[in-house]
Amino acid sequence: MEPGKEFDFSLHARNQKLSEKLGDFTFLKTGTTICAAIFDGGVVLGADTRATAGPIVAVKDEMKIHYIADKIWCCGAGTAADNDKITDLISSKIRLYQMNTNNEPRVDQCATLFANRLFKYGGYIQAALIVGGVDFQGPSVFTIYPHGSVTKSPFTSMGSGSLAAISVLENGWKPKMTEADCKELVADAIFAGITNDLGSGSNVNLCVIKQEGSQFFKNYRITNQRNFQANLSTKSLPVEVIRETVRPLSLPEVHLEILDGAA
C-alpha cells in the first residue's frame, strides 16, 4: 500500500474520550422500501416516498430514485443526505467518463464506483443502494451494501421494509416478464413494504429503464388515502358576561422643553 493511502485512525482517541463523557454514539434509525426487477428488455426500479427521523415522519414525498445516467438509475435506502451526495458524486464521474471517451457507461462500472466509495469509508456512509440499468450486455440489477459488498441478481430489495417486499418479488417474478407485469409486481412489492413497515409509507414511485431510455412514474400508486374527514364543526354559543368594570385610563404628563436655537 502506498504511504499516505492507508486508513487514518488519528481521531480514535478523541472519539473514545467523547464516548466516555457523552455515551456511545448511535445512528438514527431510518426506514425505506426499495426494490428492482428485470423484465424482458429492461429494468423497473421502485421506492416508497416516506423519510423518517427516528419515530417522526419527516418528509412524505421523498425522492429515493436517483438519476445516474440516461439508462442507469439508483435507489437509495439509509440516510437521505448520504444517498443524495453519493449518487450526485458517482453521476458526475459517469458524466466525465462519457465526455472523455464518448462511450456509454456500463451498469457494472457504475456499481463498482459505488462499491469502492462505500468500502473506503467502512460503512460510515449510510447508503444501501440498488443500481439498475441497461447497457450493451442487457438489463442488470446490482445490490450494494453500505460496507461496499456487491451482489447481482434479477430482482432485489433493500431497506427496513425489504422482508415484506422480497417475499412478493420471490413469489411473483419470472423470467421474460412483460413490462406491464413487472411494473405491477414492483409496485406490489413496495406496497407490501409500506403496509408492513412503519418506516415506509406514502406513495409508490417507479422508474422504467429500457434500451430506448428511461421513464419516471411519480406516484404510480397512491396508498393509504384518507377516505373520511372528521366532523369538527362546533356550534357557536353566546358568551354570558358575568360582570363589567370600566376604569379610566390615566396617562403620565409629558413636559417638552424647547431649547434656544433648536429648529
Question: Mind explaining what this structure looks like?
Answer:
With 263 residues, this protein is α+β, with helices and mostly antiparallel strands. The protein has helices spanning 12-22, 80-101, 107-120, 162-172, 179-196, and strands at 34-39, 42-48, 51-53, 56-59, 65-69, 72-78, 127-135, 138-144, 150-152, 155-158, 204-210, 213-221. It has a single domain (26-221), classed as 4-Layer Sandwich (Glutamine Phosphoribosylpyrophosphate, subunit 1, domain 1), CATH 3.60.20.10. It contains 5 helices and 12 strands. Strands 10-1-2-11-12 form a 5-stranded antiparallel β-sheet, covered by helices on one side. A 5-stranded antiparallel β-sheet has the order 5-6-7-8-9, with helices on one face. It has a two-stranded antiparallel ribbon with strand order 3-4. A hairpin with a 2-residue loop joins strand 7 and strand 8 (138-144). Helix 2 crosses helix 3 (107-120) and helix 4 (162-172) runs antiparallel to helix 5.
